[in-house]
Write a structure and sequence with these properties.
Layout lengths: L7 H14 L8 E6 L5 E5 H20 L5 H22 L6 H28 L8
Antiparallel strand pairs: 1-2
Length: 134
Amino acid sequence: MLGNFPLLVVSFAIYNMVAFLLPGVGWADPIYTIQMMSGASWTITNGDALIGLSLLFLFFELIKAARAGSHSIADHLLSTAVFVAALVEFLLVREAGTSVFAVLLLISLVDAIGGWVISVRTARRDITFEPGPQ
């Protein structure tokens, strides 16, 4: 059952924990600055880190979508439910009205739609037709 767990729930949980439990922490607060060979300074913020983690989760979600089996439908339904819940939060909760949350919402949409599309495409390849009686 753990294989059906939508990983992007973790991203939304982290976002909500920071937004509601750590009100002084901002998404634009720097975590680390890296000096590039070009002389530029690349500053990684809290929001950048969360979006990067969410993209990694999206990668694993799309790999899970490519597997065949009865669990894939439940996985897609859960991913769709995560997207719908996040959309409602984005529209109705003041703390969710940020660009970081909007990007997380977009990642969740790609997960939901991508999972359904990949599942349909792989199911079409599994269909075999045998010649009828002649």
